[in-house]
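In response to a reviewer's request, we include the raw inputs and outputs for one of the modeled complexes. The two entities were modeled together in a single run.
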Amino acid sequence: MNKKRLQICGSIFFVLLTCIFCVSLFAQPTVVTNPADGLTNTVITNATTVVQNLTPSPAVTSQSTGVALAMIVIPLLVPILVAIAKYFMPKLPGWTLPILASLLGAVIDFISSKLGGPGVGPLLGLILGAAGVGAREILDQLKQTKAAATGTAVGVLAFALLLFGSLVPLGMGCAGKLAPGGDYSPGTTSLSTNASTGVITTNFTATAAPDFAFFTADASFDLTYSAIDAIFNFERDNRNLLWSISPDIKHTLDKLRPQAVQIRNDYIAARIAYEANPIPANLTTLQDVLSRIKATLAAVQAAIPPTIKIQ
Amino acid sequence: MSPAELLLVIQGIEAAIAAAPQVIDVAEKGKALIESLFIAGVISVDQQNATKSHVDAVQAAVQAGEVPPAWTMEADPTSK
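The model returned the following structure tokens for the whole complex.
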């Protein structure tokens, strides 16, 4: 298999996926606070009417479009700026380029915000800058340079760190709150009307203590299971293409598939046990299985490398 | 770039686009969890119910002995 083809294909896969991740992760919702009346997609209740305010103002729609535009423009501008930097500083070490590109993404966002244009925030600016290096690497590879596709790896790594490295452990450790009335904070709601004022009061009576740890475990499982499922499906749907790149991709995932099924079953068994008897020991078992699932996800992710680099 | 290489690149782009809906689904779940845990500080009723519903669906599949097709080992492709 031609090295250049492998590098091009691998880079394109993961630059696109990184961009898709970034856009969907940070895209602004279409329906948000309406500046005209300060309402935020809210159900307003009084004694006689229920009003649902779902109409975004033109200003909000314009802001969302601007953010989407910034997400496209930053990864395109960064490679050009990096190329200019390399022109003026030809001895710039290769390892500095991903860092430089990430910083440039944040700087572009900062300048855009200061000039009254759309802003995506410094964190997303950094990630989009890193994604821009991936685009630059594709150009380099098309020109048959020997540059390694470090940028795409950085982009994927940034996402992975953000989502799986930081989110779940912090989520488990933080003292979050569960809104009353949900499945993990069950209770009954009743309405009472003050006869003299007509004001309706909502009364909530908890039927069980909120179980934040159980919610966090289930949410982490849901996220991890979905990620593993996405990768397995991606390989299955594109098996012939990936097989032509490397049979090792399928073979590695085939080794992990029975393991993933077993761990999925273990989690469900632990979950059933915890629901029947929510004691700390059963919660610990649940969290132990969860850590094995996360290890499996890491192995599954590694089977499809961010960049396919052939010596 | 040869036609064969161009075809491979196009196939790669098609594969990434085809995978996008599922990737977006995972990203949206992550986004919702981030917002709830670290921004809003409160897990809404809707999000609690959605999470429970997803995991309950997996539990029902496990109890029925179902394994998704993509989670099973299949024969290797016959040609490269």
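As requested, we also summarize the result in words. Chain A has nine helices and five strands. The CA atoms of residues 269 and 286 of chain A lie 9 Å apart.
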